[in-house]
Amino acid sequence: MAPADERALAAEHEVLVAMACGLPLPDVLHAIVAMVERRTDGTCRIEVGEVVSTIAHTDRTSAATVAISGEHVARVTVELPAPTDGAAGAVVARAATLVGMAVSAASRADRLTHGATHDSLTGLPNRVLLLDRLRHAVASCKRRKGEIALLYLDLDDFKHVNDRLGHRAGDQLLVEVGRRLAGCIREGDTAARLGGDEFAIVLDATDDLTAATVVRRVEAALTPPIELNGSTISIGASIGLAMGDSRSTADTLLDEADAAMYARKRSGSQTSAKPVVPS
What we know:
This protein is α+β, with helices and mostly antiparallel strands. It has eight helices and nine strands. It is 50% helix and 21% strand. Helix 2 packs antiparallel against helix 3 (87-117) and helix 5 packs across helix 6 (167-182).
């Protein structure tokens, strides 16, 4: 094998290894750019999107475009230092194929990650992601000596909705609750569905007054009834609130908020601006 062919194979091998190792997409694209420039002595540019720019073809330009799953396309363009003899075209075409493979693999990985960390019904973060966000909030709290809050919500009489109107209506109710909760929080906070009819909200960098304000906001958001299968359903929820500081742990906060929620439910109260807070 000629040395040039060996170098070409080695360059492509580096790209394939980067994809196999699951490196971030920018790193893989950087490896493809390096491969093209090494093999053509030109300057390579990669574009990925729904629309890519048009180019003016010259005897010093070679370009290739590839369709990717969905509506995205990728284009690889190389500007050559001297008029092309056609050999660069094959390099650029192969690079475009590799870009398509890399973008598709990254999209699949993103979908898998999203599916593992988000609730498939409501689209909210699930328990796994909530605990991760809560742990990060606790760590941040320890660094800045501030407070965080965790709200734990359980819908009241949700079983009655399922039994009376069916599980499809129950799912619609859960989706609507998730939508309303997501509208109650600030950027950087997290609203999650824990499972069943239980939800939680993590408030980062907060205090007692702000947490109570969010509880009232949640109460107001859940007040308007929802129409399900021709029936008007009022949404009630029991809310437990736990405040955390530098001494807290994510698991302890979750346990305290859960206990506060059940204490609220046993007391016969529903949403309140002053939830039970364990000492």
